[in-house]
Design a protein that fits this description.
- The complex is a heterodimer of chains A (76) and B (365).
- Helix content of chain A is 83%, strand content 0%.
- Chain A has two helices and no strands.
- The two termini of chain A are 28 Å apart.
- Chain B is mainly α and 365 residues long.
- Helix content of chain B is 78%, strand content 0%.
- In chain B, helix 4 packs antiparallel against helix 12 and helix 10 runs antiparallel to helix 11.
- The longest helix of chain B is centred in the middle third of the chain and has 41 residues.
- The chains are: A mainly alpha (76), B mainly alpha (365).
- The interface between A and B is large, with 35 and 54 residues.
């Protein structure tokens, strides 16, 4: 049974799934955290620039990951 | 091959594609509907459009799904037809019971059973079954479960102390993106099965050579059938996946969809076909288990796992029986015609009962 398994393809599926699946969820969570903290900072009269920057960067990388996912489909 | 039989096979393949669509609608929309990220009709409409688009984006799996499972030299139109009937039957049965199961494995099982009945054990390539069914069936749910469990655990650590309202709204917005990506990836993966089986019939008929490209009309008709099926929606399975495996919050829904899309896209990218149903089911279980093990209704999960184990032998048995009935009437023309008439009658009865059931049990959105 082991002889017919393409371990190279299987390995690629596993690492790519972990990087993409965990990465996308973490990035979006960071964006939510950043926007939430920025809103709290503004309400309390403090500067929110750092949290806004964190959220925007996370959202941009998240969007790039989505675009890359679509590109993977288009390039097959 | 008689052209009448060829077109019966093509029509049956598109009927399978339609059942594939409504059977697998839940894969793309169940989490979004459950967490109220989208209204049910909007969710299935968006999923249908993206499945249609996705079907045009990749032909890699279409070129591989029809080969390697059975000996292509022994495949006849009657075998293809009987295999499709086996797959459609299993799809309808599991839909009726509200159980998500793999349409890919049902199709493979149907063809294997029909080929076995027609030509004996030498027609079935055991290595192909291990490579394309057994290994992916083990990998898909476990990988999706593990990826989603890690992803949701990290997400809870990041947003766990924030106000629940804005966090939930944020993840609901994210679900629109992750759900869309999942629908698109589903289209790139699942519509290819029908293209592959029609391609196989065209090659068996001598209409195409085995090295030819998949014709455009095959791509368009397969995309349309899966999109229509998706739009009709398999609400029984949507209820099971959306609310009966775990009680889902928006973060879990987002993580399950994101991880599911990642796994399907990765597999599709390297030509390693995985069942979208098994991936998203595993992802939902992972999202629940990471919170606490008792959050997963393991009885429901067990029923789903039993359906997965039974998929290949059950659809193979129906495929074999169907081939036997076809053979009684003649495999060249009359047999497929008689069985297809019976199939249309059964499909009509099933959809009438489905409409009645939907009126009696409105979806909790």
């Amino acid at each position: 049974m082991l002889g017919v398994v393409d371990f190279h393809a299987l390995g690629n599926v596993i690492w790519a799934s972990f990087v993409a699946g965990v990465g996308v969820t973490v990035l979006f969570s960071i964006a939510i955290y950043g926007f939430g903290r920025a809103d709290e900072q503004r309400r309390s009269g403090h500067a929110a620039t750092a949290y806004v920057a964190l959220a925007v960067v996370a959202m941009v990388v998240f969007a790039a990951a989505v675009v890359y996912g679509v590109a993977v489909m288009l390039n097959k | 091959m008689d052209d009448v039989v060829l077109w019966i096979v093509v029509a049956t393949a598109l009927a399978f594609d339609f059942t594939n669509g409504f059977h697998d609608t839940a894969n793309a929309v169940a989490t979004s509907i459950s967490t109220r990220a989208m209204p049910p009709k909007v969710a299935v409409g968006l999923a249908a459009v993206l499945n249609f688009i996705g079907a045009f984006l990749s032909l890699e799996v279409a070129a591989t799904i029809a080969s390697g499972i059975v000996d292509a030299d022994l495949v006849t139109p009657a075998i293809v037809f009987a295999g499709l009937v086996g797959a459609i039957t299993w799809n309808l049965a599991t839909w009726w019971w509200g159980l998500p199961s793999s349409s890919s494995h049902a199709l493979i099982g149907g063809v294997v059973g029909a080929a076995f009945a027609a030509a004996g054990a030498e027609a079935v390539l055991g290595q192909g079954i291990v490579e394309k069914v057994v290994v992916p069936a083990l990998v898909a749910p476990l990988l999706a479960l593990a990826v989603t469990a890690v992803a949701i655990s990290l997400a809870y650590r990041i947003v766990g102390r924030r106000h629940p309202g804005p966090v939930a709204r944020g993840f609901r917005l994210g679900q629109i993106v992750s759900g869309s990506l999942f629908s698109l990836s589903h289209g790139t993966n699942d519509a290819q099965k029908t293209m592959g089986i029609i391609f196989l019939a065209l090659v068996a008929n001598g209409t195409l050579s085995a090295s030819a490209d998949v014709p455009t009309w095959v791509v368009v008709s397969a995309a349309t059938a899966i999109a229509l099926g998706t739009y009709v929606g398999g609400w029984r399975i949507i209820r099971t996946m959306g609310s009966r495996i775990i009680k889902m919050d928006p973060a879990q829904g987002f993580a399950a969809q994101g991880a599911g899309a990642a796994v399907i896209l990765s597999a599709s990218h390297v030509g390693f076909p995985l069942s979208t149903t098994q991936v998203i089911s595993g992802a939902i279980m992972g999202a629940g288990a990471a919170k606490r093990l008792s959050a997963v209704r393991w009885g429901v999960a067990g029923n789903i796992a039993i359906a997965w184990v039974l998929t290949l032998p059950a659809s193979a048995a129906v495929g074999a029986i169907t081939y036997g009935v076809v053979a009684v009437f003649g495999t060249r023309d009359v047999g497929p015609v008689v069985v297809s008439v019976l199939l249309v009658g059964l499909l009509t009865a099933a959809f009438v009962r489905r409409a009645a059931a939907n009126r009696a049990l409105p979806v909790e959105g």
